[in-house]
Each structure stands twice: as structure tokens, then as C-alpha cells.
Amino acid sequence: xLWCPAGRAQVGHDPERSPxxxxxxxxxxxxxxxxxxxxxxxxxxxxxxxxxLGVRYTMRLGGAFEAVFNAAGARLxxxxxxxxxxxxTTTQSVLIGDVGFQFLLTGQxxxxxxxxxxxxxxxxAYGDAVPQDTSGFRFRSRFQFxxxxxxxxxxxxxxxxxIEGRDIxxxxxxxTKYFQYPLGAPLLVDGVDPPSEWTHNPTLTLALGIATRx
Length: 214
Fold this sequence. Notes:
This protein is mainly beta and 214 residues long. It contains no helices and 10 strands. The strands form 2 sheets. It has an 8-stranded antiparallel barrel with strand order 2-3-4-5-7-8-9-10. The protein has a two-stranded antiparallel sheet with strand order 1-6.
């Protein structure tokens, strides 16, 4: 029989003093607010730069994975180009809906209440009409997708505070008038500039998570 001194019988952290704690939350409602930025693409016609409000539902899939269902609304700035008129700045409301997943780097545990994560989503962005834009440029229904990374801190068993960065990517299509002279000088050069392009729209949000099921 192997004898072990009492002082050496335990290996690792004392459970009461361990920095790791179970995260029992399996479903959560997340309320968020933040800012979406971007260049508006090559000529600045795409919607970008504005506040963002959203709501999200997360559901534990098993292990370190969560499913994410997200809806958000933003009021974004964009430049309007019309024939025989100076460029003008306006705003456009954009609704964003997507689904995806998150991977929790600490699995089903937190480290001193912290849980870093990353993931990806895909869905649709829908912009309202901009009647003053008569150039033919439209941003209505657009497929969008992108990665996300963040960290959450569990203030209690039911509440968590979160900070998250995302890159929402969508495609812009330019009208024929952007390549013609009625706008003054052409905004884009035919045969050189593409008629469409993907744009990056980084977002930064702060959020409050509320457990709905343990």
C-alpha cells in the first residue's frame, strides 16, 4: 500500500479557491448597443458610421458551442450622388438579422468570471428607401456575414456584461450613372473600377446578458 503524506495528497486547486467556476447558463437574452463604422466603400455611397442597437438570443449546443440568433437596427450615414447636383450627406436606417455560432474558449467554465469567445454569423441587411437618391444606387436587401470576437464577465449567476467586436461584410452594386459624366466627373472609371464590391463594417458593442434558463 502506497503511503502519501497528508500535505501532498491533493494536486491542483482547492475547489473553493479555484479561479475556474461552472457557467450553468444554457439560454440567455442579450441586449446590446454600440457603433458601426466603415468607409462606405470606394465612393462613400454605402451606409456606414452610426449607432447600433440590438437584441440576441444564445442557446448552448453542447460543450463549448452556442447558437446565436441576432437582430439589430442602425441609423447609418451615407453620401448621395445625383446628376447635376453636389454630393449630399444623409442617413439610412438598416435592419440586420443573422444566425451563427460562438465558441467559448474556456468551455463550460469561467476564469475569474471571464469567458472569452469567438464565432461567425450570416444573414441579411435591409435598408429603407432613400427617395432623394435619384442616381439609381440602392441599398435594400443584402446578404451579410462576418466574424466576431469578444469577452463576457459573469457578475452573478444570471447576469453577464459583454464587449464584442464584429466585422459585418456586405456587397454594394453601383449604378450605370456612377460611370457616366452627367454627375460632373465620373465617380468610377468604366473598365477599371468594378461595378460591385464587398465592404467591411467593423462594429463594437457593449451588452447585458440575462439568463433565461439554467
